[in-house]
Amino acid sequence: xxxxxxxxxxxxxxxxxxSHYYESFLEKKGPRDQDYKKFWAGLQGCTLYFxxxxxxxxxxxxxxxxxxxxxxxxxxxxxxxxxxxxxSLVLRNQEIKFKVESLESREMWKGFILTVxxxxxxxxxTLLPGHLYxxxxxxxxxxxxxxxxxxxxxxxxxxLEAQLLLERYPDCGNLLLRPSGDGGDDVSVxxxxxxxxxxxxxxxxxxxxxxKYVIDVEEPFSCASLDAVVDYFVSHTxxxxxxxxxxxxxxxxxxxxxxxxENGESxxxxxxxxxxxxxxxxxxxxxxxxxxPVPITPVASQERSAPLLxxxxxxxxxxxxxxxxxxxNEDVPSRSRPVLNPRKLAKVQAKPLKxxxxxxxxxxxxxxxxxxxxxxxxxxxxxxxxxxxDLTAELAEKLQRRRALEHSAGxxxxx
Length: 415
Description:
Blueprint: E1 22-29, E2 37-44, E3 47-51, E4 61-64, E5 68-74, E6 85-91, E7 95-100, H1 103-118, H2 129-148, H3 159-168, E8 175-179, E9 187-195, E10 198-209, E11 212-215, E12 221-223, H4 226-235, E13 254-259, E14 266-271, H5 342-350, H6 368-378, H7 386-414
Antiparallel strand pairs: 1-2, 1-7, 2-3, 3-4, 5-6, 6-7, 8-9, 9-10, 10-11, 11-12, 13-14
């Protein structure tokens, strides 16, 4: 029985190995190391990168060369039988010792380091023509890299604009590089500090002489790149100067993409921060204030009012807003109900209240529409209070009797 074929193994994707000007095995000993440690090292730009293996794409350590001072040869470390060759890299803040397996490897490392630091091919080393050609290629690559790479604090602004930026955004730094006002490839450095509550602005000139940048101070200092110029100002001021880095604009309102339920299109929805809860809903922006909702309280069966009056009747409805008042356990009449004379209301309330009387049958001869309106009006209760409902029924009954008498008298006169 034939077994099912297993799918072929797909090799795992490995990251591309980094490209270096020069690379080989190198043993390193730092100021705090007890002994040398072997790495696969590579030089790219003004930085040495150290890897655990020559197959690794991610470095484990790196060492910048912008603070370069000098390179020196070292005597063999340990016994006289040690076949290694030693040299030392002296920086402004530390000294690193290296060990290689051959004299050629030591000269190669020294030659490439001097090439990227001094931006020239050294001529005082024991090198073959092929080695010198490799260093010339590395020099051309480094020159091309430096022409495209500038520090983040380099801005193409004028002298006045640089001062305004440092003054307006003090939290973003106080050191800024800009093109020189004299034209050409020279660079200017603008700094701003506070002394006794007074703002002090200074400008420094950096001359671009060949591959180097020379800081024009009392003791001119030569730098291999603009990054080295920035490092010089930061290190020589005890980090009082901070490179200027303008922060990007950040959003203040949280938003998200949401699909529209009607057409399915994506829309951007921004949620505003809810404010502190208040006694009522917030008014709409740019419009009138919204009134709070009126709670509906269920009414007992014996207190339920009759249907509302016919909307065709002519009643006086107040136009102005009623004064806002907080009433406790009181019935407030609706704004759409008729307004009664307060004097008549007081007199009627003094009389003993009578139970509601059912309306009499429609008298013969009355107009159908008028009788219908009177019958509807007599069955309606305007207020939820029992006394006011009885009063309304009594008034409606008297009005009905009066109109019936007037109609009967008029009919008798016509005959």
